[in-house]
């Protein structure tokens, strides 16, 4: 038996980041019991434009957008099993952690945080795997 | 029927990074036959004290910690499916491999290595998915 791969498309098409920027990847894929989302950077959900800001503002935008994208596929933040967070600087780990906390009030997912240079000079990038 | 997440709590006090470091994450989440672990670091599993050392000593400590965590959840190191091995500098790639191979002697899991900034000046972090 083969299982099907389904592309994840946000209801708000402004959040279809690879489509907006003409990049060769999908916002997410659904397969088996899981949804895999590409690394999200901070974009304004109204204009679709990149929203450079602080680690806190970028983290909030990313996780708000992640919630929307997951909900578009009948999942949600409280069904996320794992996230990976890339930060421009690990000196800002606590700033990210503080903003992140509000989006996962109970039983947060497993997580890995590391420092990296991120495309377009963004400060934060977060990907996730969630249960459908 | 919707599958739910199962939280895997820290099997020893030192492996509870949420309590010890304030990291907003669960040590591991079991879902749909897989176990997703938070990025593991070289810490003393009883006290949580960080053990900054060499790539070799940190890799060993991390595998010992993963063994404790996975076995507490009914899995084990030989059930690893995927590993992201984060190191502070690619120049130590061979050093990582030398220590690493001792813990996955047969049919090692798939793996991706990248160099990155790791919290608190640590040199290694392993982010793993295992079969439950």
Which features characterize this protein?
heterodimer; A: 132 residues; alpha+beta; 60s Ribosomal Protein L30, Chain: A; six-stranded mixed β-sheet; 3 helices; 23% helix; 27% strand; B: 132 residues; 25% helix
Counted up, domains of chain A total: 1
> CATH first level of chain A: which class?
Alpha Beta
- List segments of chain B where confidence is low: pLDDT < 50 over at least 5 consecutive residues: none
Average predicted confidence as pLDDT of chain A: 96
Query: Which sheet architecture does the biggest sheet of chain B show?
Result: 6 strands, mixed
CA gyration radius of chain B, whole angstroms: 14 Å
* Quantity of strands of chain A, as a count: 6
Order of strands, widest sheet of chain A: 1-2-3-6-4-5
Distance N to C terminus of chain B? 20 Å
Coarse shape of chain B:
globular
Gyration radius of chain A, in Å: 14 Å
What is the CATH architecture term of chain A?
A: 2-Layer Sandwich
**Could you say what the CATH architecture of chain B is?**
2-Layer Sandwich
Give the termini separation of chain A.
19 Å
Protein chain pair with the most extensive contact, residues per chain: A-B, 29 and 31 residues
Name the helicity range of chain A. Answer: 10-25%
Structural class of chain B: alpha+beta
Helix and strand run of chain B: EHEEHEHEE
Which homologous superfamily in CATH is the superfamily of chain B? RutC-like
Protein described:
The complex is a heterodimer of chains A (132) and B (132). By secondary structure, chain A is of the alpha+beta class. Helix content of chain A is 23%, strand content 27%. Chain A has three helices and six strands; from the N terminus they run βαββαβαββ. The longest helix of chain A is centred in the middle third of the chain and has 18 residues, at 55-72. Chain A is globular, with a radius of gyration of 14 Å. Chain A starts with a strand and ends with a strand. The model of chain A has no long low-confidence stretch (mean pLDDT 96). By secondary structure, chain B is an alpha+beta fold. Chain B has one domain (6-131): 60s Ribosomal Protein L30, Chain: A (2-Layer Sandwich), CATH 3.30.1330.40. Chain B is built from three helices and six strands, in the order βαββαβαββ. Chain B has a six-stranded mixed sheet with strand order 1-2-3-6-4-5, covered by helices on one side. In chain B, strand 4 (80-87), helix 3 (93-103) and strand 5 (110-115) form a beta-alpha-beta unit. The two termini of chain B are 20 Å apart. The model of chain B has no long low-confidence stretch (mean pLDDT 97).
